[in-house]
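hey
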């Protein structure tokens, strides 16, 4: 995005990527369908960036969900919008869009150098490790789009933070975002590995959301978990409401019915219709099951999820932390390094999955590129 903004006003651009090919995390996102954006009113969309909403507001307003869709269509992609407002290419993968995008950059004479790992500066020149040995580049302006600190094998290893910290840039420590929670399951739950958890509400702190989770061998993951993982990371307990559409009193009334000779499991199945997955979670986290219908109803409405925190940062979909708002100006230029701009996930913002991540990465890339072009124009004039 930054390269296109710079070439649009006639500048020569080199894109250096540490990996053997570009956009590997973008391609990985496409493996689950490439959720490009969320087709919803701007004021709803921007609130998904939480405390960073005010910072990102002008950038996303200038490159909102409609702009993302127009951009993708301009690259020859047909799109569709799902029932929840999530927008996907009809191809349901990233590679066709990426090929078209790279072709357009090539026509604009953007030079792409792969296996060029940026390692800092040598005086005013950028330093790179390359297959041909150490190389330097002297640039008029630099845009860093280095990613966060998750999925290191795709290029986002966060090592750039050591370089910027060494140059006096105050950074916010990285933390996992959009990550599953770790659970040390008993053998009882193993038959349910891979099963979706539907029809529940998740509560962490003051945040309550409806969403699915998936039981995996290492814990719980999925969109519902990702939505509340930030609050869990900050120390809030996690609970499931296994019957969010039924009141606690109604559940207690159902449980008060005589069960005769039926086992507790069969009684719960008949009167509550929890299904095997929710019933398994109740047994996993609720034992010993209370005898009192009211106590059991209370547990069903607020089942504590015993977990060991979030998955390791490198396994998270994205990360919080990085370059904070205080370190850059309104154009995303580092205050301590004139002519050096930052974009994407290396900035300290986070958002849930659902198209918000890609939207802001594209928007900040465009904003940084445009700001870099404006800075060049001003400084060249001087």
């Amino acid at each position: 995005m930054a390269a296109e903004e710079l070439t649009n006003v006639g500048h020569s651009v080199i894109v250096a990527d540490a990996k053997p090919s570009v956009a590997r995390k973008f391609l990985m996102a496409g493996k689950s369908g490439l959720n490009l954006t969320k087709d919803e009113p701007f004021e709803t969309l921007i609130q998904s960036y939480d405390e960073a909403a005010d910072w990102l507001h002008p950038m996303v307003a200038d490159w909102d969900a409609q702009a993302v869709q127009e951009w993708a269509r301009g690259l020859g992609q047909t799109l569709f919008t799902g029932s929840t407002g999530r927008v996907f290419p009809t191809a349901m993968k990233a590679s066709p869009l990426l090929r078209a995008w790279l072709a357009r950059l090539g026509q604009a004479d953007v030079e792409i150098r792969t296996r060029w790992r940026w390692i800092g500066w040598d005086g005013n020149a950028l330093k790179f490790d390359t297959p041909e040995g150490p190389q330097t580049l002297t640039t008029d302006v630099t845009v860093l789009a280095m990613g966060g600190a998750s999925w290191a094998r795709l290029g986002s290893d966060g090592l750039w933070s050591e370089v910027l910290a060494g140059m006096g840039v105050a950074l916010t420590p990285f933390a996992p975002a959009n990550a599953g929670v770790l659970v040390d399951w008993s053998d009882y739950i193993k038959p349910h590995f891979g099963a979706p958890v539907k029809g529940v509400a998740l509560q962490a702190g003051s945040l309550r959301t409806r969403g699915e989770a998936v039981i995996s061998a290492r814990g719980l993951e999925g969109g519902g978990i990702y939505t509340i993982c930030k609050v869990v990371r900050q120390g809030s307990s996690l609970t499931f409401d296994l019957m969010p559409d039924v009141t606690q009193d109604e559940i207690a009334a159902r449980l008060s019915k005589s069960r005769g000779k039926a086992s507790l499991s069969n009684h719960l199945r008949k009167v509550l219709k929890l299904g095997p997955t929710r019933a398994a979670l109740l047994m996993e986290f609720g034992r010993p099951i209370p005898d009192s219908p009211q106590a059991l109803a209370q547990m069903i409405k607020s089942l504590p999820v015993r977990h060991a925190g979030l998955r390791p940062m490198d396994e998270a979909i994205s990360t919080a932390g990085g370059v904070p708002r205080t370190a850059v100006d309104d154009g995303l230029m580092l205050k301590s390094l004139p002519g050096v701009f930052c974009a994407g996930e290396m900035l300290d913002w986070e958002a849930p999955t659902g198209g918000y991540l890609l939207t802001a990465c594209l928007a900040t890339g465009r904003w940084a590129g445009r700001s870099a072009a404006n800075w060049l124009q001003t400084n060249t004039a001087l």
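The first helix runs from residue 2 to 8. The chain is about 35% helix and 20% strand.
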